[in-house]
Design goal:
The protein is of the alpha/beta class. It has three domains: about 325 residues, Rossmann fold, CATH 3.40.50.970; about 160 residues, Thiamin diphosphate (ThDP)-binding fold, Pyr/PP domains (Rossmann fold), CATH 3.40.50; about 140 residues, Rossmann fold, CATH 3.40.50. It is built from 23 helices and 18 strands. The strands form four sheets. A six-stranded parallel β-sheet has the order 9-8-10-11-13-12, with helices on both faces. Strand 12, helix 17 and strand 13 form a beta-alpha-beta unit. Helix 1 packs across helix 3, helix 1 crosses helix 9 and helix 16 packs parallel to helix 21. The mean pLDDT is about 95. The structure holds thiamine diphosphate and magnesium ion. Thiamine diphosphate binds next to loops.
């Protein structure tokens, strides 16, 4: 059986490499049934080749092995490489999946010609990994997240094994490096990492490549993984047999819950031309991208390209119409692509609590809601060692809660977990949440792409921020960065008290397609009147009647967050008395309400601006985060005097009270800003 599969894998591998080389270089003659001329090649071929042969090898074996397993166990490949798009497209074209999605790229000669001509702008899919195609559940681009994403996806997914294909360069990233050890926290998460050890990163040798097989086994062994090292040298039948054998062994030990990694040693970009112009290519970093960048003007390059394509024996793979034949047809029939796609749509329900359910402390608020959601059995709570410090210690021992001091790993766990339709949240210090920026941006991109499914939101509860904390623990940059993306999925929720925190979490946990940043302090014990909570949730803001004068105000104070709400409540009578003006206080739950309604689902229309903020009153916004984030949302659309009091990085450590005073986040600061605003309105008039 192994030798039969090896033969089929060889056909699939050759076809996938062939279709990759076509995409990178050709515009015509894609079956090579005529001598290759300059007319057939692209003017300026470009793109990444180095990762192709090893990744194609992995995908070919995994798809065939998944076919043999026939639903008993699902093998789900995930691509970690920075530039595996071309090989993903090639594998999807060969196996007909691309043609199902985009009929113009049918699995025949015309389909391949069109694909080659389109690359690198393949009909909305670009040239990089896409969720629309097999093995695309992890978008990649950004190296490091694939292994932990696979761990999160495979957690509590019986019958599925995630197979992240990870480069040796990628193994140098902190996120991947931390994930090996982190597996200890997730027994029963069946992950079989395939380390694609091709010797090189982008510009030089990888660190792993300097280790011999024993050293590799010791390295992985110390981290808790058994490494099975398999050598793929020329791509011969015996290489395929050795790989199949190692893969089956590794599958068996993975299912025994013995973490096992398959380390595939090969040469980066093998099967490409070994030299050019007398210069060695093989065994150098020059094969990271295609080396044949000017085959039109360089006859040697054209000749090398023709030999390169011919080396995969296309006539033996494709019939005259370009359809798979012989062993390749057999391989396509056997191959199977598995995914983490949930059998049913995500189980989101309606909120678990009545809006008026009161919570007196942050601890009550969070533990109550989290427990109610976790009781549904599909919830994961993650934290970088901050549950106890955030007064949530009682959650730490729950089987659905995991703490690991590696923010980036946790984000990928959450993303992998939710990618299979389940719900969860990450509790992090606001100051260190910017570590998550790059990962979140990647997931936001991925979730916007064609082929992405409707998934439960990524929820982040950000606590312990600088207004209450030490100098080193203040940095609201994550919210600022995500708002700057202008992605409608992002919401920044700043509940004013524990009851509102509970309500915000309750709604967020059951929401779909979003990235919810909930910024709430663990100290707050204030309880504002609850009458407006339903409106705050529905609309993202509400006028607080208990603090507001009736009718049109002379000044509107918008408070976004627990400290701003408390400061507004404290300052309002003072402002009223000092400036003899009518004041309205608006509680803002969702910062994106201030943004353009064309872009943000809850953005205020011009009529709503007048309704909530008053038709002409100057506006003073108090925010927990950077004023720049608010200015960016407003973009001048209020057409009236506006000021924003928020976080600015202090020059050095200072007592909290002094910090608040220096930034204007206190009664005196609010009164001062209010006076200036109202004076400027007089000038504007
Ligand atoms: C976080 C991050 N840093 C840098 C890059 C740029 N980059 C793209 S591919 C690559 C080298 C990857 O090497 P390896 O993981 O060994 O993959 P291979 O191409 O050899 O399969 C780098 C550094 C990136 N994509 N992501
Ligand atoms: Mg590499």
């Amino acid at each position: 059986m192994i030798s039969d599969t090896a033969t089929l894998a060889d056909a699939l591998w050759r076809a996938t490499c062939y279709a990759s080389v076509c995409q990178l270089h050709l515009r015509d003659n894609v079956l090579l049934n005529r001598p290759l001329t300059t007319q057939h090649v692209k003017e300026r071929p470009s793109g990444h080749w180095g990762t192709v042969p090893g990744t194609a090898w992995a995908l070919s074996h995994l798809a065939l092995t998944a076919g043999l397993l026939d639903h008993r166990v699902e093998l789900v490949p995930l691509l970690g490489a920075g530039h595996a798009g071309v090989v993903q497209l090639a594998a999807a074209w060969v196996t007909g999946e691309l043609g199902k999605l985009r009929p113009q790229f049918s699995p025949d000669a015309e389909g391949l010609r069109r694909l080659a001509q389109a690359f690198p702008d393949v009909d909305g899919m670009g040239a990089e990994v896409t969720p629309a195609l097999p093995a695309g559940a992890f978008l990649g681009g950004r190296l490091g997240g694939c292994l932990p994403f696979a761990q999160g996806a495979a957690l509590d997914s019986p019958g599925k094994i995630a197979v992240p294909v990870i480069g040796d360069g990628e193994c140098e990233t902190p996120t991947t490096a931390a994930s090996w050890l982190a597996q200890r926290l997730l027994p029963g998460s069946f992950v079989l990492p395939l380390v694609h050890l091709n010797g090189f990163r982008m510009g030089g040798r990888s660190l792993l490549s300097a280790m011999d097989d024993d050293a590799l086994r010791s390295y992985f062994g110390g981290l808790g993984w058994e490494a099975r090292v398999v050598h793929v040298t020329t791509g011969s039948q015996s290489d395929h047999v050795a790989f199949q054998t190692a893969l089956w062994d590794a599958l068996e030990s993975t299912l025994d819950d013995r973490p096992t990694a398959l380390v595939m040693r090969c040469v980066k970009g093998w099967s490409a031309p070994v030299s050019l112009g007398g210069r060695d290519l093989l065994g150098t970093s020059d094969l990271h991208k295609t080396p044949l960048v000017s085959p039109r003007s360089e006859p040697e390059q054209l000749m090398r390209l023709a030999h390169w394509l011919a080396s995969y024996q296309p006539a033996n793979l494709f019939g005259e119409d370009g359809r798979a034949k012989g062993k390749l047809a057999g391989a396509v029939a056997e191959a199977r692509w598995c995914s983490f796609e949930p059998a049913e749509p995500p189980r989101v329900g309606s909120p678990t609590m009545a809006p008026s359910t009161r919570a007196t402390t942050f601890t009550d608020a969070v533990t109550g809601v989290v427990r109610r959601h976790a009781a549904r059995g599909d919830f994961l709570l993650l934290s970088p060692d901050e549950l106890a410090s955030n007064r949530l210690a009682e959650l730490a021992d729950e089987h659905w809660a995991h703490e690991l001091l590696a923010e980036e790993v946790l984000l990928e766990w959450l993303a992998g977990w939710t990618a299979s339709g389940r719900r969860g949240a990450l509790v992090s210090y606001e100051a260190f949440a910017p570590l998550l920026t790059s990962g979140l941006v990647g997931h936001i991109k991925q979730r916007r792409l064609d082929g992405a499914r409707e998934l439960p939101s990524l929820n982040l509860l950000l606590t312990s921020y600088g207004w209450h904390n030490v100098h080193t623990h203040g940095d609201p940059s994550l919210a600022t960065a995500l708002l700057a993306l202008r992605a409608p999925a992002v919401r920044v929720l700043t509940p004013a008290d524990p009851t509102r925190t509970a309500a915000a979490l309750d709604e967020a946990f059951d929401s779909l397609e979003g990235v919810n940043l909930i910024v709430a302090g663990k100290h707050s014990r204030t309880a504002h009147p609850v009458g407006t909570i339903a409106e705050e949730h529905r609309r993202g803001l509400a006028v607080w009647p208990h603090l507001s004068d009736e009718g049109e105000p002379d000044l509107t104070i918008v408070a976004a967050g627990d400290i701003p709400a408390a400061v507004a409540a404290d300052a309002v009578d003072y402002v009223r008395a000092r400036h003899r003006c009518r004041v309205r206080v608006v509680n803002l739950l969702d910062l994106t309400v201030l943004g353009d309604p064309e872009l943000w689902p809850r953005g205020l229309s011009d009529q709503d601006v007048d309704l909530y903020l008053g038709s002409h009153a100057p506006v003073l916004v108090l925010t927990l985060g950077h004023p720049a984030a608010v200015w960016g949302l407003l973009s001048g659309r209020l057409r009236r005097p506006v000021d924003v009091i928020g976080w600015q990085e202090p020059a050095g450590p200072m007592p909290q009270r002094q910090l608040a005073r220096s930034l204007g986040m206190d009664r005196a600061g609010v009164a001062h800003a209010a006076g200036l605003l109202m004076a400027s309105r007089e000038v504007v008039r």
